[in-house]
């Protein structure tokens, strides 16, 4: 059974002072539980959230390039969340999983809960591997033996709520250049993909060949999204590494494991959630405005 994130309610009012004094405990507890929820500490704005982030003493990790395409910096080390429309489900993932460099920790701040829905969901990624090993060991063996081919297709026109570089194609927004040679160089360096193709219609295809199961903190975790999806201006196609399709039964089993083992956080104003990005995936349920959840990433 999945244990919900470790939760703390206030005994003292100043959360920044508490985490500064208990840095080692916070880091150890986060690694043990995968997520920590701080609730009721009176955090009300991006600056308050920033003070807590700085008090933790973790190394800064910046949203830059591809990962920062939709982000607006609101305070020191504090950014807006995804520009994907709120009525769209953002499926489970590790933050920046398809980048060469990715953060060790993700921090969320619930500044304004949604009028309805809009929960952020969490699941230990090792649970996904363990349950899949129990139910379909042949699939896990195939993943470990052949890996996967993961293709990200970006459409020509941006679809989202951001106002940044909306006249560019999606790949130009992602890679911050219109030059094809430079774009390919940046894609291979930052995205860690194996090849990239820029199409005449303004779309692009980024292809990865990879082993989906990795080991972090002595846990076997499922690193990429395995279910092909389409969200806004991008879609993915995922197959086994030999090009054969992943059986629909396997995808259905994976989705069932998510549904039966995830924990939803119903945001309350001022909530802060710390997440171990190496071992825990997160998702966003569809919701109704207003909803403001800010984010920070750290190493």
UniProtKB/TrEMBL annotation:
The keyword Iron belongs to this UniProt entry's keyword annotation: no
PANTHER family cross-referenced by the UniProt entry: GAMMA-BUTYROBETAINE HYDROXYLASE-RELATED (PTHR10696), TAUD_TFDA-LIKE DOMAIN-CONTAINING PROTEIN (PTHR10696:SF21)
Protein name: Clavaminate synthase-like protein
Keyword RNA-binding recorded: no
Domain of life per record: Eukaryota
Any GO molecular function: oxidoreductase activity
Positions of the TauD/TfdA-like domain: 15-291
SUPFAM superfamilies per the UniProt record, alphabetical: Clavaminate synthase-like
Keywords: Oxidoreductase
Organism for this UniProt entry: Iris pallida (Sweet iris)
């Amino acid at each position: 059974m999945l244990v919900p994130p470790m939760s703390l309610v206030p005994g003292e009012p100043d959360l920044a002072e508490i985490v500064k004094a208990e840095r080692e405990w916070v880091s150890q507890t986060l690694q043990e539980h995968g997520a920590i929820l701080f609730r009721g500490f009176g955090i009300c704005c991006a600056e308050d959230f920033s003070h807590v982030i700085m008090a933790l003493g973790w190394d800064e990790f910046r949203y830059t390039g591809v990962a920062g395409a939709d982000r607006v910096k609101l305070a020191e080390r504090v950014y807006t969340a995804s520009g994907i429309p709120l009525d769209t489900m953002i499926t489970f993932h590790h933050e920046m999983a398809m980048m060469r460099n990715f953060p060790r920790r993700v921090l969320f701040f619930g500044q304004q809960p949604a009028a309805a829905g809009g929960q952020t969901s969490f699941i230990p990624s090792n649970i996904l591997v363990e349950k899949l090993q129990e139910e379909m060991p042949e699939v896990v063996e195939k993943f470990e033996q052949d890996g996967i081919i993961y293709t990200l297709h970006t459409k020509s026109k941006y679809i989202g709520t951001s106002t940044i570089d909306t006249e560019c194609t999606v790949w130009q927004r992602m890679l911050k250049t219109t030059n094809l040679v430079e774009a390919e160089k940046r894609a291979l360096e930052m995205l860690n993909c194996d090849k990239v193709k820029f199409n005449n219609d303004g779309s692009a295809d980024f292809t990865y060949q990879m082993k989906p199961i990795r080991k972090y903190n002595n846990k076997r975790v499922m690193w990429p999204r395995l279910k092909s999806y389409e969200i806004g201006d991008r879609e993915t196609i995922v197959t086994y590494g030999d090009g054969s399709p992943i059986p629909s039964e396997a995808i259905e089993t994976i989705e069932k494991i998510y549904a039966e083992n995830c924990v939803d956080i119903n945001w309350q104003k001022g909530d802060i959630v710390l997440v171990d990005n190496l071992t825990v995936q997160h998702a966003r349920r569809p919701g109704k405005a207003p909803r403001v959840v800010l984010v920070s990433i750290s190493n």
